[in-house]
Write a structure and sequence with these properties.
By secondary structure, the chain is mostly helical. The protein is 86% helix and 0% strand. It is built from twelve helices and no strands. It has helices at 2-20, 25-43, 48-68, 71-78, 81-91, 94-99, 102-118, 121-127, 129-151, 158-181, 185-194, 196-226. The longest helix is centred in the last third of the chain and has 31 residues, at 196-226. The chain is globular and about 70 Å long. The N and C termini lie far apart (68 Å).
């Protein structure tokens, strides 16, 4: 019940804040969808195939939906001038900037995924409900950190973004492949399938970069021709 209560409280606070200021309904829809998926994941324990797919969906779908909802930006819009300055100062803190560094965010996601799928923590999490819940919280936290360089205020651009997304998709697929090799073929395959949105994001980022490069080349050529 705790995840449901936390999600309902978060949704209520978010929607109340969105009602007080001009706010795109698409962002609200994304945030509520992300919360709903997180709650659903905590309820999907059996069979193992569904459970592992749910874990992957937290990283590939729920986390980016929550960030698209931009709850921090919504909080800033609702804050008084004093608290806006405090929030802005907090966002500039060096430890926080280090925490969302792409290399660290990528590494944390990979380490947590590997630890809870390829070590004794996998069995321990099945045996101890508190550890299982902590596992879900870690999956969500590291997934949010992973997606911040993509959807957050300090975004990667062009080639760096494409490399980051492809590396993330490949690394998570590698964890799933090792999970399959460990005797969980169906569950590992379900993880790979559920991670496809991450690969799709990498493909879309690459396509967007190529289109932008083509437009810039055409513009430069036109300027040179008419210059």
């Amino acid at each position: 019940m705790a995840p449901i209560a936390a999600a309902l409280l978060s949704a209520g606070l978010y929607l109340a804040a969105a009602h007080r200021v001009p706010w795109p309904w698409r962002r609200s829809a994304a945030f509520i969808a992300g919360l709903s998926l997180v709650v659903a994941v905590t309820r999907l324990d059996d069979p193992l195939t569904v459970h592992m797919a749910a874990h992957a969906l937290v990283a590939s779908v729920a986390a980016p939906l929550l960030l698209i909802g931009a709850p921090f930006s919504l909080a800033v819009r609702n804050a008084t001038p004093f608290w806006r300055r405090r929030l802005a100062a907090t966002a500039r803190l060096k430890p926080l900037r280090m925490l969302v560094h792409p290399l660290l965010a990528f590494s944390l996601l990979l380490v947590v995924q590997a630890a809870f799928h390829l070590t004794a923590l996998f069995t321990l999490a099945e045996q101890h409900p508190w550890l299982h819940m902590f596992e879900h919280l870690l999956f969500l936290a590291t997934a949010l950190l992973y997606w911040l360089p993509v959807l957050g205020p300090w975004r990667l651009h062009h080639g760096a973004l494409c490399l980051y997304l492809f590396a993330g998709a490949t690394a998570n697929d590698l964890v799933a492949a090792l999970f399959m090799a460990d005797g969980h073929a169906a569950a590992g395959a379900a993880m790979i399938a559920a991670m496809l949105p991450m690969a799709l994001a990498a493909i879309l980022a690459t396509w967007s970069w190529l289109v932008a490069e083509e437009r810039q080349a055409v513009a430069l050529e036109a300027h040179a021709t008419h210059g």
